[in-house]
Amino acid sequence: MQHHHPPPISTTTTTTGSAVTTPYILLATTLFFFLLVLSFTTSPSPPPPPIQPHPSLFPHHQRILFHNPNTTQNQDSPAATPPLPPTPPSVAYLISGSANDSDRILRLLYSIYHPRNQYLLNLDRSAPQADRDTLALRVQSVPVFRAAQNVHVIGKADYVLPTGPSSLSSTLHGASVLLRVTALWDWFINLSANDYPLVTQDDLLHILSYLPKDLNFVNHTSYIGWRESRKLKPIIVDPALYLLENSETFYATEKRQLPDAYRLFTGSSSAILSRKFVEFCILGTDNLPRTLLMYLSNTPASNLVYFPTILCNSRQFNRTTINHSLQYVSLDSRQEPHPLNSSTFDDLIQSGAAFATPFLPNDPVLDRIDREVLERNPGKPVPGGWCLGESENEKCSVWGDADVLKPGPGAKRLEKRLVELLSNETSRSRQCSTDHGIEPVDHQSLRRAVSRQHQRATS
Ligand SMILES: *[C@@H]1O[C@H](CO)[C@@H](O)[C@H](O)[C@H]1NC(C)=O
Ligand SMILES: *[C@@H]1O[C@H](CO)[C@@H](O)[C@H](O)[C@H]1NC(C)=O
Ligand SMILES: *[C@@H]1O[C@H](CO)[C@@H](O)[C@H](O)[C@H]1NC(C)=O
Ligand SMILES: *[C@@H]1O[C@H](CO)[C@@H](O)[C@H](O)[C@H]1NC(C)=O
Ligand SMILES: *[C@@H]1O[C@H](CO)[C@@H](O)[C@H](O)[C@H]1NC(C)=O
Ligand SMILES: *[C@@H]1O[C@H](CO)[C@@H](O)[C@H](O)[C@H]1NC(C)=O
Ligand SMILES: *[C@@H]1O[C@H](CO)[C@@H](O)[C@H](O)[C@H]1NC(C)=O
Ligand SMILES: *[C@@H]1O[C@H](CO)[C@@H](O)[C@H](O)[C@H]1NC(C)=O
Questions:
Q1: DSSP states along 355-367
Q2: What percent of the chain has pLDDT over 70?
């Protein structure tokens, strides 16, 4: 039963509004002013005016806000008549890029677009301001983005070095803006212009709607070998944190001990994080998110450490973590990711992952993914259950109910992968630690819930 919490109710809007006393929120508010919120051009005074997205996309807006608990209650009783599918969740995406990435960011946006989700686009400071303005205008010229009011562009950017602390700071900035923009999302996903999806949003939202909303997906391990030590012990200074000019990171000759006040975990920079956890990192009263941030401000690869370490050192979250970020990455012998191309297409699809990285700009394999996996035409969103157009090329110019999902084969692949992850005895007992005998998330009933969607989707 615990697996079907109703989606977060809109009351969070008021909580963020009234909590403007803490300095942290003030900071978030200030950052929010810099945001070019395309949809509501009225005065940006907090709290933002209630958004009124287009009624054809959200005919059941009432249902989203005042969710009827009866629709999700009987999921676990097999005797009941087929219950209504749960209300789909929504995902907040942060998409980051730098100079010359505008086209890739737009392509990625189309490929992961769904009216229920939220999107925040961030071009870092190595891209000229003109690029940011043009990107905002291009986004604004797309009717469905305007109608659903869910694509936002950060108007003022900072420098970001790809793996340094500045990259972590940029991710946290994006997450805090997304928390301010709307209360209606359940998971946070951080993507870069190098990433691309391997399933449609209808597939992803469909599968996520059967999972408890407090699950976090991130690769993590407490094993710190020489390779990891080499990334954690050096002391660095990331100039992107304080200089206006872009310049190289510099390394101190001294090295330091690993911390013992908490246990370090390292993992992947990609993750699917629950809203509750993102709030804990940004608005929470526990101090670990801040202490760790300070510690990591001089650490290379801080973006690989931050989320896994907080998750695994917090009593509230150490049982909510699945040891996989659902992202496919192919590492070479030096543990560096190497670009994916057509020869990896079959592996990509068989992996059952939701995303893959890195791709080179306009690599032909992206066209193949568009054609064979997403069924997406160039310059158009992926046709989902909300697209009612008749003609092949204009499917998504007629809008229907955004709550209606049409999952395809991608949902089956994702389901299979999740069931594997959840049924793996080894990873079950080792969640967040190397200790045995811990009983983590109730994987059994989770697995049943995920499998049930299969029968429903095929019937
Ligand atoms: C839920 O179901 C119960 C019993 O079937 C009913 O009394 C109640 O009014 C329902 N609640 C809502 C919000 O529909
Ligand atoms: C962006 O593209 C321009 C022209 O194609 C090129 O001169 C420049 O080096 C590129 N910048 C980056 C950071 O790749
Ligand atoms: C997570 O998975 C990786 C790779 O399969 C493994 O090395 C690591 O030990 C796992 N983490 C935990 C906490 O079990
Ligand atoms: C996460 O771990 C799995 C193995 O458990 C591995 O296949 C995958 O490449 C890892 N992902 C990242 C982003 O490191
Ligand atoms: C967010 O994603 C970007 C692009 O993939 C990556 O460089 C960055 O490290 C990520 N941030 C965190 C905190 O994982
Ligand atoms: C989670 O935290 C609790 C309380 O701190 C602790 O007892 C438990 O061992 C932790 N579990 C894992 C898997 O680390
Ligand atoms: C794909 O990349 C691999 C290694 O990165 C390379 O060996 C192969 O030739 C590439 N294939 C194509 C079709 O470009
Ligand atoms: C289960 O997890 C272990 C260790 O994380 C890994 O070696 C094994 O391949 C996994 N099995 C499956 C079926 O994913």
A1: EEE-B-TT-HHHH
A2: 76
Is residue 353 exposed (0-12), middle (13-18) or buried (19+ Cβ within 10 Å)?
Answer: buried
pLDDT-derived band at 16, boundaries 50, 70, 90:
very low
Which residue has the CA at smallest separation from atom 14 of ligand 5?
Answer: 269
C-alpha pair distances (Å), 306 with each of 95, 248, 285: 19, 22, 17
pTM for this model (two decimals): 0.80
Three-state secondary-structure class, residue 147: helix
Q: What is the mean pLDDT of the chain?
A: 80
Q: How far is the CA of 81 from the centre of ligand 1 (A)?
A: 16
Residue 274 φ/ψ, nearest 5 degrees: -70, 155
Cα separation, 61 vs 67, in Å, equals 10
Output the six-digit token pair for 183.
């209360």
Q: How far apart are the CA of 101 and the centre of ligand 2, in A?
A: 10
Q: Is the CB of 322 under 6 A from ligand 3?
A: no
pLDDT for res 169: 93
- The answer to whether residues 92 and 118 touch, using CB atoms and an 8 Å cutoff, is yes
Residues in the chain: 459
Q: Which amino acid is at 406?
A: K
Which of 33-47, 399-413, 416-430 has the largest mean confidence? 399-413
Ligand 1 binding pocket includes 62 (Cβ within 6 Å): no
Question: Which ligand does the CA of 426 lie closest to?
Answer: 8
Is ligand 6 within 6 A of the CB of residue 316?
A: no
Helices vs strands, H then E, count in the chain: 18, 15
Please state the domain extents for the chain.
11-75+87-458
Question: Per DSSP, what are the bridge partners of residue 121?
Answer: 95, 153
- Indicate if the pLDDT at residue 157 is higher than 60: yes
